[in-house]
């Protein structure tokens, strides 16, 4: 099993096979629009623009599990991200990232890191072969992950 075994949904409900990201470095992020870390959307977009041509993709998953800080629909979140932060990296439907109703991809990711997600804007880095490399907590700024991404992009 790898991340490529999973499917998810875009905000419009369209199914997405994560196998489409095979051979790319993937950064999964659970996001929230009303969080103290929400400005990280801008840094995530900068990271995406800096490395997307080399094979980085950032996947944003809105989550309302932490402090109710993502109350809108997935479509509203997508519009908020685009309008306020110029986000062009893929975003998906709202999910839960821990507990009994956790989305299967996040259950898999946290099993691989051995760490549960504690708050919004936790970031999980996956290499080109689909292997989970590292989990970063909310306080780690996206641009601080740049050197780890560069190593994987090699």
Automatic annotation (TrEMBL):
Catalytic residue positions: 35
Record-level Gene Ontology MF annotations: peroxidase activity
Source organism, top-level taxon: Bacteria
Record flagged with keyword Oxidoreductase: yes
Family matches, as SUPFAM superfamilies: Thioredoxin-like
Cited InterPro entries: Glutathione_peroxidase, GPX_AS, GPX_CS, Thioredoxin-like_sf
Presence of the UniProt keyword tRNA-binding in the record: no
Coiled coil: none
GO biological process, one term: cellular response to oxidative stress
Pfam families: GSHPx
Keyword line: Oxidoreductase, Peroxidase
Protein family (similarity comment): Belongs to the glutathione peroxidase family.
Protein name: Glutathione peroxidase
Organism: Cohnella herbarum
């Amino acid at each position: 099993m790898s991340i490529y075994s999973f499917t998810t949904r875009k905000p419009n409900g369209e199914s997405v096979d994560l196998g489409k990201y095979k051979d790319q470095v993937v950064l999964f992020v659970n996001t929230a629009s009303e969080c103290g870390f929400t400005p990280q959307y801008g840094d995530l977009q900068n990271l995406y623009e800096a490395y997307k041509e080399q094979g980085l993709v950032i996947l944003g998953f809105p989550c309302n599990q932490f402090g109710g800080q993502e109350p809108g629909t997935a479509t509203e979140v997508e519009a908020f991200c685009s309008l306020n932060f110029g986000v062009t990296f893929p975003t998906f439907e709202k999910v839960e990232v821990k507990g009994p109703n956790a989305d299967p991809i996040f259950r898999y990711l946290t099993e691989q890191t051995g760490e549960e997600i504690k708050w919004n804007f936790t970031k999980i880095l996956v290499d080109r072969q689909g292997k989970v490399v590292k989990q970063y907590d909310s306080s780690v700024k996206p641009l601080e992950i740049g050197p780890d991404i560069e190593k994987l992009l090699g």
